[in-house]
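Supplementary notes for students who missed Thursday's class. We covered one full example, reproduced here. Read the sequence, then the structure, then the short commentary at the end.
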Amino acid sequence: MLFLTLVAVAISQTALAAQVKLGAPAEIAQVDLAKLGGSVINQLAWSDDGRELYLQTSTLDKKGLPKDVRHFVVPADGGALKKIATEPDYAIAYWVWKAGQTAPDDLAFKIDVSVDRHLQSGSALPRSAPSGVSASTTVYSMILKGEVIGEWTDGAAVAGATFGWGPKGTHLVAYADRSGRLVVMDSTGATQKIEGTKDVLLPAWSNDATRIAYLEGRGRGKYEVVTVAVSK
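Structure (token representation):
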């Protein structure tokens, strides 16, 4: 009986990504960091009822840590960003499962992090560097089911920046591939790429799994908040 149950579960999870129907990307808001303040966007999160999105910006100190954090919300159906005083409670809870190392209810669906250090020519070093010392580049990669879902050079990997888990029960994840396109993957490793997407940042599933929101780069600190409808 246990064997049959496990088989049924396996069948129900087979190629879920291929079964998902994805709508056309729809732009709902513009983001201009020069006007909002800050140099980076740290978070994008859905409210529990799916009516609004929370967006967080900041500048970075010399250690690469955020400072001067600013908070905004925008209607999920479109509109202007509104500044708020602090991060909503729903955004804090949302980020915990959205950016975790494993899917919310599937510990086997797990992201691995690899660290590769590459020696470079000594000519790249400052003249004051001791002789015989070589410069190095460190590449941090997040890998899921053999796919690179995030990569950083000489900077720590940032959880949730390039991926977002689907909510409990979905066994799905959305991420930006190396070309910047939005991709949906299931726990079998099957994928579906969303055509017409590029420069994707901070993909985030709504709590009911009917929409994926993300930021799409427009250059010079400008972005569009975009949503994609999801159905089965």
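Commentary. The chain is about 10% helix and 45% strand. The longest strand covers residues 66-75. If anything here is unclear, bring it to office hours.
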